[in-house]
Structure formats: structure tokens, C-alpha cells
Amino acid sequence: MPLTKVTRNYQVTLSAEVRKALGIKEGDYLEVKVEGRNIVMSKLERKRKRIKLGKKLTLEEIEKEIERGLNECMQ
Q: Looking at the domain covering 1-45, what would its CATH class be?
């Protein structure tokens, strides 16, 4: 089991072994729970797809994605 140290800013680093096993990448969110004396972290799955940088989008595509996102938020 890999160990990690809490920094003076109360940050922890997940080992490469853990990140790889769970598919955790930069920008992902983890849900943190306290269960007794244990800290339990779970990777949150994104419900909406991301628009990847580098892809050229038309104005119509951008407006369509904004509208779709707003509709999801209203439900």
C-alpha cells in the first residue's frame, strides 16, 4: 500500500499506482468522506462530456453545447 505525506498546506499527492488504477487525471474531482477514523476518496464521473482544446468549433456548435448544458441544469 503506497504511503503519502500531508504537506504544510494540508495537501496530499496520490501515487502514480493509485492514479493509474482509478484512471485519475489532472482536473478530475474526488469526493472525500470521513468514515470513523478513515478518509475515503472516490473519483466522480462527469455526466457531461468535455469539449477538448485544440478542436476548432463553429459558433453554431458552441451555442448548441451551451443550450444543451443549460437544459441539463434545468432538469
A: mainly beta
